[in-house]
Amino acid sequence: MKFRNLIIRTLSGAGFVAVMVSGLLLNKYLFAAVMIFIMGTMMHEFFKMTMGDEYRFSRALAIFAAITLFSLTFLYKGHVWNFPGRLVILAMIPIFIVMVNSLYVKDKTDFGKFANLYTAILYIAVPMTLMNFAVFSPGGEFSGLLLLGFFIIIWASDAGAYVFGMAFGQKFGKKLFPEISPKKSWIGFWGGFVLSVAVAVLLYYTGLFPDSYHLPNCILLAVLMNISGVYGDLVESQWKRHYALKDSGNLIPGHGGMLDRFDSALFAVPVGVIYLMVHNILW
User: Fold this and answer.
1) Which DSSP string corresponds to 234-246?
2) Which pLDDT tens digit goes with each residue over 28-72?
3) How many whole angstroms separate alpha carbon 119 and alpha carbon 10?
4) Cα separations (Å) of 196 from 51, 137, 224, 250?
5) Is the pLDDT of residue 2 over 60?
């Protein structure tokens, strides 16, 4: 049974990676389709976790608002139809509609749950939208190599944390956040830290990161993304622990839900984009 589960986990993981890489490398429209699907799925899982089956129409409006935000930013950054940047502000209209819609819901006994609609937009939709800034040059040319590098660093961090944590962290050293995620250890953290930095150096020397980024920037980028990714993982773990759930969903056999796979990226990718933009080295 364990071997069968390992096979299922490996095949589903390979399929997931294949879809991700295809979306990042083939063309910008496939990239948009893959990211919108991932974003919508994560928001659905988040709403299912926090709101159950209630307020379905309001949840659909929130997902529509998120897709609008991503799509308008995509059109602007990708120079699709020469879409002007000033029109990205139109994404606020669906968000306002989500707020106004709450006035017309008859059953307000659990009105506090509506906060989860806005939380999902900030927690999921905004980070996913920022990925547009990592794949388009100022001239609108598409290349998913940088974002692929981001994900490779994140995956390396997760893999290093898992391997070192399972091998040594359960027996030695202190736990990272035992009240939130009992299995995470400091040894696992440092294992992920070292492997993510090593991978960033490898990406630099293999040319996935441009020479203009310079090696110190690549190393610091990996450090910041590793730390922020760990926090992203812990934040999602806290949500699941609060609602007594092991996984956010079961879309990917053996891996849980989409939110389980992207929890680190929701923090790490925006931090990577912000770092490169602040230092004026993004493209």
Assistant:
1) HHHHHHHHHTT-S
2) 999 999 999 999 999 999 999 998 888 889 999 999 999 999 999
3) 32
4) 35, 25, 10, 27
5) no
